[in-house]
# Entry
Amino acid sequence: MDEISLVDVWRTLVRQRKMILVTTVAGIVTTISMALLTTPVYRVEALLAPVAEDSRDGLSALAGRFGGLASLAGVDLGGGGGDKDEAIALLKSRSLTQKFLEDNQLSPVLFADDWDADSGKWHAMDPRDVPTAWDAHQLFDEEIRFVTENPKTGLVTLAIEWTDPVLAKTWADQLVERVNAETRTRAIEEAERSLSYLNKQLEKTAVVELEQAIYSLVESQTKQMMLASVREDYAFKVIDPAAIPDPDDPVRPRPLLLVFLGSVAGLILGAVIALLLGARQGFEASAVRTQ
# Structure
């Protein structure tokens, strides 16, 4: 088998330069068409700081002295703010997401191609083809909402990617509000249950030391309930709120990147075809004909 030199390869590529140019232009035109026909998607981000448990130091002494009683009462001596991991989990949870989607009736928005706005009905004739709450959650969780935590700073980024930048910002703001409201409500309810238990135990005991312990726990729960009632940013504090991006700055598609990739793909495709043709015809014969 004859060896193929780089000179033969180069001569073959030069001989097929018109075909390579055609495939390169075709790649550019194809990617430009894709960019023009694809609906742009925008990304909005909100930078969040989990609220610090600012009462932990003050309640640590109570935990040491009355930990057993606090456990029985369901009292949390960990602090006045919400738990960071719990707050992040709630932000990504199915229950909160589905409630958010249902309250805002977002299924027709998420599946706009399947929805007839004029009649207010789905296009699908078969009920099994109608998008369900499960489908809406899957789409929102996998392709629209993204939650990431910076391990160094502990800051949390909530990102929403959608075709309408204004709507994306609204969704980001509403999700943060819902998480704060939900954690605040849970904290108040837990404190109320704890206070109810402690007050019942206070009526049963006549031991002074135990009464003092219960009064201390009652005081801690009362403070926590008051804090939850007045603090809006109970789970997350917004460091950098979501902002509406510029209409000319979608996260995808990126026209310039697509054009570059299209030209490279077309160039490579043309070169491969040229080399295949050269191999079929024989590189040496091709070289002779170009001389």
Q: What stands out?
A: Strands lie at 42-50, 115-116, 121-122, 145-149, 156-162, 236-240. The two ends are 23 Å apart (CA to CA). The longest strand covers residues 42-50. The chain is about 60% helix and 10% strand.
